[in-house]
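User: Please fill in residues for this 165-position structure.
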């Protein structure tokens, strides 16, 4: 019997898939899956995902942390900041359910790292994601995108009524 993936592994895979679907809203032309890339230091870095910026060959590092009891600490964001510097990335996304602690927010702001809040139990079909004042919600049959001051529902393949008498 094969081992089922750990919750953090599933979270990384789901986050990469969702970011890929939302790539245009995130300023990306593509999101690539988990991979290793070399750093200028000679170290090899494993990326949870890699986002390619729209209109260029620049890339951003996607780091996922499925921490459900505390926000991301500044040390974790500092490690991502060094990985960005060592790989020549243009910046990064820190994906987590609870966001960043105050010190981590300061480090992120100085290193072009953006916090992406994605619920811990997200699936490709059902998720809540917040990024730079935008809220993206997907429920089975309904996708919503909210910006400050407006909410736009998009209904696709709504199956809520099927199978009912």
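Assistant: Residues filled in for all 165 positions:
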């Amino acid at each position: 019997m094969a081992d089922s993936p750990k919750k953090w592994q599933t979270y990384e895979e789901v986050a990469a898939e969702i970011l890929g679907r939302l790539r245009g809203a995130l300023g990306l032309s593509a999101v690539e899956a988990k991979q290793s890339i070399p750093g200028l230091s000679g170290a090899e870095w494993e990326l949870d995902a890699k986002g390619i910026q729209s209109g260029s060959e620049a890339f951003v590092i996607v780091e996922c942390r499925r921490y459900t009891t505390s926000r991301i600490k500044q040390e974790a964001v500092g490690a991502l900041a060094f990985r960005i510097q060592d790989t020549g990335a243009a910046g990064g996304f820190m994906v987590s359910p609870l966001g960043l602690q105050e010190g981590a927010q300061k480090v992120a702001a100085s290193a072009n790292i953006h916090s992406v809040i994605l619920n811990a139990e997200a699936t490709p079909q059902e998720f809540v994601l917040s990024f730079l004042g935008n809220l993206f919600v997907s429920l089975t049959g309904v996708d919503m995108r909210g910006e400050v001051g407006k909410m736009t529902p998009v209904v696709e393949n709504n199956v809520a009524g099927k199978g009912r008498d």
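For context: Helices lie at 7-21, 74-87, 102-110.
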